[in-house]
């Protein structure tokens, strides 16, 4: 089911070079500095329940594709906000398996096939005939201890993994992880979207809660900044080396001091305009950069997604169900205020991700090839795929080189997909480099160094996890 | 002149796989669900006149390239609005042939070389030396019955072909086709641009004529909608399964009921603003979607072309002479009103085409991978080419899979180019799939199924022509 | 260090074809119709100083990448505006060499490796261990006469080279070149950005100086145009066949006559708005086109760069130090006024360059495939690279053909990189064509003709240097 030469270039000589490069990096540890796994998995180490809750219901990549061809989310076991019953796990799994051909050609299929094999020793293809049997096999295997979350970290060679928590998260699993001595291995990340986006209905309340948590007056600009400063310190105690910011656009702003408090007053009032909200988000990115310069946390920006484009779905089943779609980004213009201020600040590292591939060769690679602070995040989300990786390297390397890239991160909530995602990246890197070797623009030893760098070291450096 | 392995990948193993995949689909029937051939050809089955009127004067791909290097449209026999004389067919053909090297590297050359060979048995290259002889050979062959339009359908294996008529078209050829029992084979398509675009100088008059045709008061919003409802039914009687909408942008709107009549009043008045016209077009797309939900017609949107960018040409010789140029599109934002309303409506199918390839990986493939209604149209116009097809599949398959694609359509007014355009698509599909097989991400049997699907079934399903 | 098959496709058969195509064009003369070498080099034929001033300090491609990974411009010997001392050449060179791995995968490394070998016979790799020795070797070789600028022209087979001078340039080297009989070989280019951009602080003064130079009243619109007319004639005396226009966007305008003088009055006043400045630049492009129609000079537009995106750098060390970054362009919309007016004017040639690759397949190739005046400039700046060349040909040839391309130009101030840049282009062209030959869409003889055309003749024709 999994051919050892999968994803390598077709030309036999280039393939041989790719295989050699790959073999030397295949078993390197995994550094996973950005993602969305559940920290309580690692704190409490529970057993996973069944095939459907592992591979189907939490994976919006998978759900969306089934819906796109007319399948009903009820029949796939996706919970409803109104609590009405949906399909049970086995029925949902069988429905999914019967339509598994929809995933031909997609990375989801690569990941699931690989994870079924790697995690459960499944050798037969998933389809309507094998669905029941595979469901049972998975259920049986999940009873063993070596598929509990912490065992998965060990089996997969995950040296370090970062989860992502909002600013107001109570961080309870992190307190347990601290007791277990796992804070350096399972790190949190500070994602203050809950207190930086005035368009959220609970924004004012959230900001007040942040004030209460940190003993600051968050109705005052300076108090709000101090609250972030303190909350970031708490996150660092739980292993955080980085912050993350999910924003609809990459707009940043650098307001004069006297303009800040009036802006905060407006977004806390009932009369805030959309432009006020936009400006507040833009200014907060620059404020977060200022705090990063101060406290050394690496800053990540994930920009350019229109969230919840299907209001009906949002109403029925909530967010993260497959209706988030990329839109264009304009990094040169949008990041100018932040970079002008902090683009050369010593020690500051800003990792930028976007889903608009057109910005890579045109803007991001040239920018990363100039600004000391800027590193390019790996191909994200829809572009975390064999062809997405190939297009990314094609577009960025000539202008940014290899050393302005932040390596790879999997950005997933699907624990079992982590090793395969890193494997696809490493195969992609080996293939790209093999082509350069065969076309005589890189020596094989140089290629091997770069392959190793992009597999692990680049991520360690980018996220300041060198001592992990 | 036509190598059997043309367009296949260079790597010998991959080429062998591509050839095998191709051989199993090469002779499948042709389903041509969108195009611009003249329905009277099939109704009256006349003889074509000569080489120039077959290959040169009606083909704006060809004319434009000759003009771009300074050739005069008079010398190419392109009719003038002022009736002044232009070159005769033979002279025009010789002028074209003498500059045929301009087409090296372009799909036009592939199509013409193939059609000369397939239709007329021409084996020698077209150039200034052979132009006269080939003109004569074509003229001679055109006298035989097997190059009349209906014979071409048979010889090319065209199972079904759709033409495109404006809402006010008298549909006379269709009435003849009905008598001949050909309505299921030569289908019309409802393209109401003539009554949906207030920027046309004849818009108000056209809307009145639509009212007269359907016995509705089209000055009233509800009467106008009813007129469309009736006219669509007439088109369905003549085989239409689909509508088509050519729009400068993909803007859609979903106005509240009370806002509709005032908008119609404004665009029928002398005081309409450009924004009124834009909003009317946007709202009419959503209205057409509503009617499709009601009557089951498949909806097509062709968006993102700036028409007639050379006013001098327009004045001298009218539209469709080569000066239409693509512009960017923003599908996420523009289609939101329509999709929010009808994106999950049962049975509704919306096929979207654009010429802005940057929207494919960023927006359209993710959207098609979510919305049940949305299917991606094939690479259109300038991108209906070997490299355009390769870029399209590269950009869309990983996020949309193979089953959210609408297969292929040729969108041409050049009858003899239809078999070759489908052949180039099939070779492109076989090449893409062979690469996946050789790189071990798809089994050969799966690849063969997908190749067959993309050659015919995808188009049949997308256009609800399954029972054709 | 330089493999003879470098950059050719991996597939052995295709590689063989590429090599054959390349061998027939490798030694053709170099036509370099656009660039930024210093004309005094050719007039005075001095010796170059040392390795650092040849390869490091003037090359913003190189400087930027070093800065992006935290190196200090002081340590690289980049002069400061405040005159504070910076590293001496040897120290700067050693610092650069120690970080030369940053350039792996970039065209800069290709160019420098090639130039070290071609110019100085260096066979060992540049790194911290070899830096001193190579610095000495270069210094030694620079004492020989065959590395003086005019000898480099001969050794590299540079048939003709164009430099670029602003409208107010005193053209002193050109006067010397005229005495030496070199005006046809070292040509200037008219670049009137200094008198066309009201956003420059010295704009009004510059326009007055242009008036003084040409004995025209440049406060009057007609006088200003006449001043350009005369200044262009002076440039033509010194070999210029072309003008060049560096503009932030490609906006053009075609104002009515009565609106022109008031616009000039506004931009010369203290009250000009940014929109006035934009409109003036836009109108001046159309005026320059009008003068080109009149005097036959080829017009070049280089659009879509945000200059000096790091204000701190600008303040410390001035422009052209690596902080210029591309932004999107919209050629269909922006060029409409100019092309509507002059797009079909006999003899007018407009060569358009941009750094937004997304515009190539979508807008520029279709436009070049229609408008007689429009030719596509080669991949520019960040895209003058092996992958940039491959993407360019992939994107433009199918819609524009080969004969609407302006061939290659190197656009460099680095004299020794000229032969290698042309070599990379020729290898890229040979590789692209070899793939077509192997995939049977082009005959080998046709491919050879096109390879030759794109290597030299295309540039000669595009720049009207046919008789050079």
UniProtKB/TrEMBL annotation, chains A, B, C:
Q: In which pathway does it act?
A: Carbohydrate metabolism; pentose and glucuronate interconversion
Q: What is its EC number?
A: 5.3.1.12
| Top EC class, one word | isomerase
The protein's matches in InterPro entries, at most eight in alphabetical order, are given as: Metal_Hydrolase, Uronate_isomerase
What GO molecular function terms would the record report? glucuronate isomerase activity
**Entry similarity comment:** Belongs to the metallo-dependent hydrolases superfamily. Uronate isomerase family.
Supply the name of the protein: Uronate isomerase
Source organism per entry reads: Aliishimia ponticola
